[in-house]
Automatic annotation (TrEMBL):
Domain of life: Bacteria
Protein name: Response regulator
UniProt cross-references to InterPro entries, sorted A to Z: CheY-like_superfamily
Length: 131
């Protein structure tokens, strides 16, 4: 007997295709669940810069949630790729946003770790509905 997927708890993000780039797998899976529960389709989680960049370059996306640090690297290259493709994104971080990243994307939404499902979903909803 296979597992049945549950219907979304809300449809706030229905139809949205969201990249999740997060190197801490438990956090990544938590974010993934939050977004799926709001009706989004999640691509990833991508736990490395290379994996996230591949998705950012090739997938049809509505938006993205990027951990600022992916291992020893930053997600800046992913943000550049997404910007070039006019795909909005949110930075998700447990630390202050590096000054050069903040200067490059001064109006980007930043969600502080840890965040509740309502905060995560609201940030992504704001992002994609403003597009």
């Amino acid at each position: 007997m296979g597992l049945k997927s549950s219907p979304p708890l809300t449809d706030e993000l229905a139809g949205a295709r969201i990249l999740v780039a997060e190197d801490e797998i438990l956090i990544a899976l938590d974010i993934r669940s939050m977004l799926i529960d709001a009706g989004a389709e999640v691509l990833g989680p991508a736990t490395t810069l290379a994996a996230a960049k591949t998705i950012a370059q090739t997938a049809s996306l509505t938006g993205a949630m990027l951990d600022v640090r992916l291992g020893r690297e930053t997600s800046e290259a992913i943000a550049v790729t997404l910007s070039e493709r006019n795909i909005p994104f949110v930075f998700y971080t447990g630390e202050a946003l590096p000054a050069h990243i903040q200067a490059r994307w001064p109006n980007c939404i930043v969600v502080a770790k840890p965040a509740s499902q309502s905060v995560v979903v609201a940030a992504i909803a704001c992002l994609i509905h403003a597009k």
